[in-house]
Design a protein that fits this description.
Coiled coil: 37-86
Shape: elongated
Strand content: under 5%
Distance between the termini: 158 Å
Number of strands: 2
Transmembrane segments: 152-172, 217-236, 257-276
Oligomer: single chain
Keywords: Coiled coil, Membrane, Transmembrane, Transmembrane helix
Length: 278
């Protein structure tokens, strides 16, 4: 038997090279059998298990996002409360301050803290009510902003005013020269009296008196009734000043009446200055 196997082995090898047929037989014996295919029910169970794993991961992610959102809400709420406390503290400090500059500074800090707190309250969905001073301050700023929007109209008005002054000055000088030329051929008793440099100087003297009356009148107010002067000065801003009350407290009809009154008084003041004499 051994002799026969050796002969068979020798016959399968030629020149020390394994015959391809024998090599294929060896490979077939070495290949393991493939795993049986999953049934449809097993595949469905496997897919369901994957879905449950994904759902669990999604639930964990939503829980983490909710926790992060709650932490952010808590942080904003704490910051909101701190800003409200800061605003209250600033107002209390401002009430104790005697220096006007420091008082205005603390009030401004309180307004800034209120604005930041209101912004956080909107993000948190809290019901808030705008403070009266902030609301009225924004109304005054909007009123001034609406006036500044008409810059083009102001430029046109100023240009027309300068043009009218130039035309009046041109005809004033040309008419004076024409009167002087006519007087040369007229007898003395028929000559006309033209305005000269003395008349022009009198005009500027009247304007000098007119505009000097304004600071003098304000100085009188500062001596006699300083609170009225502070109320009228445009660069002193408070809740009780002419600028704020003009735009916020007066009705449009009252503003028209007040404006016409000021214009009439200024025209009357200009007319009265023509009676001054050097």
């Amino acid at each position: 038997m051994n002799t026969q196997n050796k002969a068979t082995k020798a016959a399968s090898q030629v020149g020390g090279v394994v015959h391809p047929l024998n090599q294929a037989k060896t490979l077939l014996h070495s290949i393991e059998p493939a795993a049986p295919a999953l049934s449809l029910e097993e595949q469905a169970q496997q897919i369901q298990a994957q879905k449950e794993a994904l759902q669990e991961q999604e639930n964990e992610l939503e829980l983490k996002m909710q926790q992060a959102q709650e932490q952010e809400q808590a942080r904003k709420l704490e910051e909101y409360n701190n800003l409200r406390e800061d605003a209250t503290g600033f107002r209390a400090t401002a009430a104790k301050e005697t220096d006007e500059e420091s008082k205005r500074l603390y009030v401004q800090w309180a307004l800034d803290a209120d604005k930041q707190a209101n912004q956080l309250a909107r993000e948190l969905g809290l019901a808030i009510e705008e403070p009266e001073d902030i609301h009225q301050e924004s109304k005054a700023v909007k009123a001034v902003g609406s006036l500044l929007k008409h810059r083009l109209g102001a430029v046109v008005q100023i240009s027309l005013l300068l043009l009218a002054i130039w035309v009046a000055n041109h005809y004033f000088n040309s008419t004076g020269e024409h009167i002087k030329e006519v007087n040369k051929v007229l007898p003395v008793e028929q000559q006309m009296s033209a305005y000269d440099e003395t008349s022009v100087q009198k005009f500027f003297f009247e304007k000098w008196v007119e505009f000097w009356d304004l600071p003098v009148g304000l100085f009188k107010l500062l001596i006699m009734v300083p609170f009225v002067a502070f109320y009228m000065l445009p660069f002193i801003r408070s809740r009780k000043d002419f600028f704020t009350e003009f735009f916020e407290d007066l009705t449009p009809y009252q503003r028209c009446l007040l404006t016409l009154s000021f214009i009439a008084l200024f025209v009357l003041h200009s007319a009265l200055t023509h009676g001054v004499k050097p």
